[in-house]
Amino acid sequence: MNHSIYSADRSTHLKIVVVALVAGIVVAGLGISARSNSDDGYTQTARVIKAGKPIVITNSNTSMVR
Q: Whose CA is closest to 65, among 45, 34, 55, 7?
């Protein structure tokens, strides 16, 4: 029994490729099914947040404007 991928025969390489393809399909299927399904479809709305007036937060007589 040889544990090297370089000296493996053709059927071993084919098995590795098939297992990799099946695993890729499973991961892609899980990714598609785990997507959140919302009722509003693929529409996106922009929410605008406007800045208010600057506030002053202090514990002493000195002011700090943020």
A: 55
Q: What is the pTM of this model?
A: 0.48
**What's the rounded Cα separation, in Å, for the pair 36 and 42?**
11
Residue with tokens 């208010």: 52
Q: How far apart are CA 56 and CA 34, in angstroms?
A: 46
Q: How far apart are CA 24 and CA 31, in angstroms?
A: 11
Q: How far apart are CA 47 and CA 63, in angstroms?
A: 32
Per-residue pLDDT of the chain (66 residues), as tens digits, is 667 877 888 888 899 999 999 999 999 999 888 876 555 556 667 888 888 888 776 666 665 566
